[in-house]
Amino acid sequence: MHVSSQLRHDQPTRHRHNPGDVLSSLAMTTRYGRGQEIYTQDHPAEHWYRVVSGAARRFTVQANGRRQIVDFLLPGDFFGLASRNVHLFAVEAIVEGTVVAAYPRERAEALADANPHLGRDIRIVTAAEIARLQTRILILGRIGSLGKVSAFLLEMADRLSSRTQASKTGEGILLPMSRYDIADYLTLSVETVSRALTSLKQRGAIKLVGTRRVKIIHYDALEDSDE
Which of 181, 186, 188, 196 is the most buried (most CB within 10 A)? Predict the structure, then answer.
C-alpha cells in the first residue's frame, strides 16, 4: 500500500470537539523564536502542550552527535502527553514566533477524568500522534532517497492541506521546516534531499517556488517514485 493511502486510512476521524477549547482555562501560552527549546530531553513531564501557530520539531541527539527528528508538530497538534515522568525527546520551534499552549499535566488529567468528552478527545489526539509515528516508519521503509522524499511530501501535503490557505487556492504548500530538518527526519544528507527534490521537479512531479513552497503536480508520480 502506498504511504499516501495508508495515511488516509490510519489517521483518526476528526472529532467536532477540540480538546484545546475545554482546556483553555488551564492554558499558558508562550511565543518562541526559531530554534528555541520548548522542552529538553529528560525534562520533567509536567505539562501537556499544543501548537497554536507556527511549527516545531521533536528530536533526539544520538551518541555520535547526529540529530534525529522523529516528528514535526503543526498547528493544532498536541504533544508531550508522556506516560513517563520525563520526556524522551526534546522539542524546538522551527518557525519564528511559534505559539505553544501549555497545560499543567495534573490539572489537565483531573479535568479529563471528570469530563468524558475531553477524555475521549484526548484519546483521539493521542491516536493521531501514534499514527504520525507509524507513518514515519512507512516513509523510512521506502526504497531509496527519491522514494523517501516523495513520501515525505505526500505526508506534508496531507497534513497541511486542511491548515493552509495556499494549498486551498492551488499555490501549493509552504513547508515550515528547512531541508536540513527534512534530512534529519529522513536520515539522509541535505545534499541528497536537494538532489531528490530537483529530480522530482525535472520529472514534472512537483513545482518548487523558492526553497520552501512545493506544489504537487502529479500525486501518482510521487507514489510510484521508489528507486
Answer: 196
Angle among Cα 102, 185, 182 to the nearest 5 degrees reads 100
Cβ atoms 171, 215 nearer than 8 A:
yes
Domains along the chain?
19-131 (2.60.120.10), 143-224 (1.10.10.10)
**In terms of pLDDT, which residue wins out, 81 or 198?**
198
Within the chain, what is the greatest distance between any pair of CA atoms? 56
Average pLDDT of every residue of the chain: 86
Report, in this order, helix, strand and coil percent for the chain, each rounded to 5: 45, 25, 35
Q: DSSP code of 24?
A: G
- How much is the pTM? 0.83
